[in-house]
Amino acid sequence: GDIWIGSVVLEIGSGSGALTLALVLSVGDTGYVYSVDNNSKNQHRASKTIERFLHIKNMTSRNYEFIKKEAEDIDISKISSNISHIVTDIPEPWDVVKSLKNKKTIKWISYLPNISQVQLLNETLVESGYENIYIKEILEREWKVKGKVVRPEHSMKGHTGFIVFADYLV
């Protein structure tokens, strides 16, 4: 997602905090992560995930905060004027695209589990003026390594997901 040290990320959907943690580590001490979720339990769980990891690694970080709010009610300008990326892990990110009043260059990244969601998001991004849209399907499969024999398992029981990337250019 081209998230660099110093990026300012608006994450929509805190969930368990695994993605939030990855973002916090990716932006480094000079970046910042705002994690929006309408569910206090998700935010509490995400906070604990981050705190546990940082404690185990003897690290401290103050580069994130949680905002309890509906995704469609987000006003980027009231959160930060420096947001460089929006990352979503919610079922209907197209509603957020429609409701945002974005007027600056920004990178969009969404994780979605099914292709019909991807299609809807893609259409909304195009209608909203996003460019450079590309979509990747992520597959997982196990491999067998035994001596000199290295091959994928014959039957794949995997999880698939899609990641949608887009740029809003001003």
Task: Describe this structure as you would to a colleague.
30% of the residues lie in helices and 31% in strands. It is an alpha/beta fold and 170 residues long. Strands 3-2-1-4-5-9-6 form a seven-stranded mixed β-sheet, sandwiched between helices. Strands 7-8 form a two-stranded antiparallel ribbon. Helix 4 runs parallel beside helix 5. The mean pLDDT is 92.
Ordered list of secondary-structure elements with their pairings:
Elements: E1 8-12, H1 18-27, E2 32-37, H2 40-56, E3 64-68, H3 76-79, E4 85-88, H4 93-99, E5 106-112, H5 115-127, E6 131-139, E7 143-146, E8 149-152, E9 160-168
Parallel strand pairs: 1-2, 1-4, 2-3, 4-5
Antiparallel strand pairs: 5-9, 6-9, 7-8
Helix pairs in contact: 4-5
Which regions are unreliable across 5 or more consecutive residues at pLDDT < 50? none
Mean pLDDT: 92
Shape: globular
The termini sit apart by 19 Å
Q: Name the helix and strand elements from N-terminus to C-terminus, one letter apiece.
A: EHEHEHEHEHEEEE
Main beta sheet, described?
Answer: 7 strands, mixed
Strand residue percentage = 25-35%
Number of strands: 9
Give Rg in angstroms: 18 Å
Describe this structure in a few short sentences.
With 170 residues, this protein is an alpha/beta fold.
What distinguishing features does this structure have?
two-stranded antiparallel ribbon, alpha/beta, globular, 31% strand, 170 residues
